[in-house]
Amino acid sequence: MTRVFLTLIITVFLFPISVRAQTNTTQSNQVVTKIGNPSGPPPVSEGAGSGFALNFNEQVGEVCGGKIQIPNLGCIESIIPELSKSRKGIIKDSVYSGLGFYQCVGLVQTVIDKKLPVGFAKELAAVSVPGYIFIPNNQINKVQPGDIVVWSQNPNSWAGHTAYVVQSIDDQSFRIVEANSDGRGNVRARSALYRGNYENYLVGWLRKK
């Protein structure tokens, strides 16, 4: 009888404690699981040329004063990492053929390290560029890092404009690196819109096949 009585006491008093301990452990594990897997969108990805474009923009700001013109053209020799011979040639051609200022088409060519078959930016929307397809700007299509956006002739530029996409931000905007937006060979990174003011002239973009 004594042994049975002790067994009953242990069962009655210790079982609830065991249950509470298991429950607390389960709740604790659930909290840890939530902390370890936060919700939210994944980081925005970058295209293969985005790293170069962003570094180039930063370096031009540091060693060239944010602009590339005939008077300071030699500054490109100090850009780190050192530019390839072909990229240096593209920059120089762009400056000398652009009235002494680095041009928007020149920047895109510098990033992709390839000459484009156009004289003016707006022509990128009208000619066939080997290795690329043209995607029109509408309510459905969205840019990707690595795309080359094209603006048509507009009140700000009769030659149009182009830039290199480094980041897709959301359904309304994206980030670019561009040159000569001031008409004086500047290089900068900024956010751009699919629609709105100057962006109403955004006709589309080139994308690698």
Automatic annotation (TrEMBL):
Keywords: Signal. Gene3D superfamilies: endopeptidase domain like (from Nostoc punctiforme) (3.90.1720.10). It comes from the Bacteria. Residues 1-21 form the signal peptide. InterPro entries: CHAP_dom, Papain-like_cys_pep_sf. Residues 79-207 form the Peptidase C51 domain. It holds the Pfam family CHAP. This is Peptidase C51 domain-containing protein.
